[in-house]
Write the structure tokens for this entry.
Amino acid sequence: MFSASSASASPSVTRGVHPHRDRTAEGGGGGRGGRGRGLLRPVAALLAAGLAAAACLAGAGAAAAEERGRHQSGAAAVLDGLRTFDTAVLRVPGENGEPARTQQLPAGLFEMTVEGGGKLKTYCVDLHNPTQDQARYLETPWAETSLGANRNTGKIRWILQHSYPRIDDLASLAEAAGTGPLTERTAAAGTQVAIWRYSDGADVTAADEQAEKLADWLHRQARDTAEPRTSLTLEPAAVSGRAGERLGPVTVRTDADQVSVSPPVDAAASGITVTDKDGAPVTTASDGDRLYFDVPEDTADGSASLAVQAATSVPVGRAFASVTRSQTQILAGSSESTVSARATATWAEKGAAPALTARKNCAEGGVDITAANRGDEPFTFELGGAEYTVAAGATRTVTVPVAEDQAYDFTITGPGGFRKSFTGLLDCATSGSAATGPDEAAEDEGGLDTQSAQRSGPASTGSTTAEMAGDLAATGGSSATAMIAVIAVGLLVVGGAAFFFLGRRNPRHDAG
């Protein structure tokens, strides 16, 4: 069975819910569409808008949702804030024939503290989206962020490789760019401005003359560059089969020289070991190595997980997406940092043996749930009001639609106590582009998306921006406790009424 909760979406987003997309490999069963979808849309939109308003006021108050998080792969870090910055000026087109206006904002380098040890330096790639203090971030493929659909993302990585802090000899950088003397602050500001021109199509300049020259040089010189490889991941993140077999393989993908392999916590009691293809126990691995779960015969139906970990520098250009709504970041520099990944194995004596994974699908505007059944009977599950069957030996992918900036919480259960949950936040577009429909965009080459700029002002890029003088935009957090309380009470009333109404009209959605 499937359940979804904790949905929140930006009030400026109008993307609708579309039917699930379903892809089956090696056979599989059919699905039947969920009922009541038309009724759900207006109520869901009302609840989502209200929840988003509360989230904007509450800032980083959604820590409870972070605890479950989606599957970690690579580095996980907490945002410390903007640390090295100077002033930039954003030009925003006027509305209704009014002249354009300008607004000052800080531009520069953020710092993050890596869970397990290490420091990261990042730039923002979502100008109009505010940051949240102490937001938790996960290393994420470009395709699962706004960078995936941006034809200029490779140029952003070129900028990172050819500017500060990757190039920390500021005299050499200034000579190459012909800027005149640069400081760490002006070098960071000029680099961020150049990135914003590609990540957001922003009409933005650096206030400092040397920083602006650097931004112009980087913008002109940038060339398309490939996405860097992940610091550490396991593919696939879930496998299944029968007790008495070696379940896998799970392939290590890493930029590190070597990773440590930790067996399941209760491995000694259960007799489960992590091995290579020949059955030899494995405690370390390298890129490309294949790992297996060796499950003794007659082991009771169940599941186990293995973890891999390494200390390495995360490659420049890796994206970091927040598990709450906070500016997407791109890596500019890394100390030796802890990176990790996890994979699970599920086995059964007879019947279905499912292995489930999830990934954001920005191209389709949703989350792909992939179910592989390595058992000898079909695996049937319900997802969003529709029932799906995966034949024995088959793999099936269902795309669950999720609105932009909406949190998701999916739980799938099956026979023998099988249970798998996936939580996260779909953040596939910059806030400026998200406010504009696909047929409304009016972006000039190298310029600002004028319609989105009219809908959204620039966001502050960190809690330290109060140190700066000038007309800075407000941060995403707020201490407006009274307003939060009012909104919370209103949401409880509206939410309770909505779910009571839905339960009476369509009790099937209340199951589980």
In short: The longest helix spans residues 481-505. Confidence is low (pLDDT under 50) at residues 1-19, 27-70, 433-512. The chain has ten helices and 26 strands.
